[in-house]
Amino acid sequence: MANYLGIDVGTSGTKALVMTGRGRVVATATAEHPIFAPQPGWSEQRPEDWWTSTVAATRAVVRKAKVKPASIKGIGFSGQMHGLVITDAAGRPLRPSLIWNDQRTGPEAAQIEKKVGGRKNLIKLVGNAAQTSFTLTKLMWVRNHEPRTYARIKHFLLPKDYVRLCMTGDYVGDVSDMSGTLMLNQRTRKWSKEIISKFGIDSAILPPVIESHEIAGVLTKSAAAKMGLAAGTPVAAGGGDQPVGAVGNGVVADGLTSATMGTSGVVFTHSKTYTTDPKSRVGTFCAAVDGEYCLFGCVLAAGGSFQWFRNTLGEAEVAAAGKKKVDPYELLTAQAAKAPAGCEGLFWLPYLTGERTPHGDPNAKACWIGLHTRTTRNELVRAVLEGATFGMNDAVQLLKARGLSIRQIRLSGGGARSAFWRQLQADIYGTTCVTINAEEGPAYGAALLAATGCGEFASIKQACKAAIKVKRTIKPAPAAKRHYAKLYQQYVRLYPALADEFARIAAL
């Protein structure tokens, strides 16, 4: 029987998944890798650590799946988007990667927009405005601050492309991931000649770009020996974690949307046609589906807000969960369920690491607003869950405003594991939500890409239709929907009222 391997190079670790040729998940395994913060607002990782964790996760999943290496007929990829990887001629990284949530490049983002004649012109060229997360800002930071390193660059890659390089020896990119660099003309799905010329980038450092399901190379003997796989195994190009996660959720047709509540929260919708937000509050990218597109908004600390609460204020729940052998999030969510909807006027702004959608403000700060003497711990927890979901709803409303159909939202990540949070999302989004039989997101999507690239399916859409089914439907409760619509109108007033203060705080 043919099996396929999906690899997702995430922020906290690499996940590997073995899937049968018909889409059944056999086993998964994860290996962690570190994150470094040399200065406040900086976020870096060593590309070599991604390769180490990929090897560890792959060996572990093959062992757990109890499959023969030769049964793995193809390998697909997903990876954290935007991270800058620059190497010498031999493929050795020249410095640690500035990853997606690194916030140091605000000046470079402003310089980029000024150089192309303003934000509107940049969006016209590459589909998005310059934000600190996008890779060109990071490349320009290296040129501005580390000119000797910049002068040594021979190859430019993104995180999962570096891992694939270690596996195949080939320098290749894909259109979905490279859409997040500010250097790809998304209409043509090729590098933007205007951007390359305007910023004096040596086109020789840029890899060829192909579609996500296309085969980018084969596993070398040395890589195969390290990973416990067979040499010559085809390796698909893969894509960015959000477009590939959409494949893993079956969001590959108009009207389908996903809301993924991880550390960051992403609301993603598919579009057959190319469309952009003139203010770039939601981003436009090439989809992992050949020739099509997607738009999504990113809330930097959605599930991350809940994680922060657990880590900082949830010591008692963590201890109690250990004794009861349950997840501490279950105990915290049970507390939240005891508080009234809206927490009697208490709001949480989820801006722990600045914000991307819809404000594009690295200086934004998280806070509770509306504390009073009746506020209890239950309200504090519930407000965090509501605030994170209000932040996600910002993206939902922006996508609707672009004329995109959102008839069904597929939930995944931590927010999909709790019945309470699932219902909360349906009530706040005001839209029918569902969960599906596939829960592995990007790693699963990566395996489906590999299977399609190797001919198991005729197309990505056929693969998703065959493998992914709706498991649970959650409809908004009419009264709660009306109540949260009113609360959301107050929520959206809070950031504008505090934006200037956030900037002043950041300058202290």
TrEMBL record:
Domain Carbohydrate kinase FGGY C-terminal: 259-452
Family matches, as CDD domains: ASKHA_NBD_FGGY_EcXK-like
Keywords: ATP-binding, Carbohydrate metabolism, Kinase, Nucleotide-binding, Transferase, Xylose metabolism
Coiled-coil regions listed: none
A Pfam family this chain is assigned to: FGGY_C
InterPro entries hit by this protein: ATPase_NBD, Carb_kinase_FGGY, Carb_kinase_FGGY_CS, FGGY_C, FGGY_Carb_Kinase, FGGY_N, Xylulokinase
GO biological process: D-xylose metabolic process; xylulose metabolic process
Residue ranges occupied by any Carbohydrate kinase FGGY N-terminal domain in the UniProt entry: 4-248
TM ranges: none
Gene3D superfamilies: 3.30.420.40
Keyword Ribonucleoprotein carried by entry: no
GO molecular function annotation: ATP binding; D-xylulokinase activity
Alphabetized NCBIfam families for the sequence: XylB
PANTHER family per record: SUGAR KINASE, XYLULOSE KINASE
HAMAP family documented for this protein: XylB
Descriptive protein name: Xylulokinase
Originating organism: marine sediment metagenome
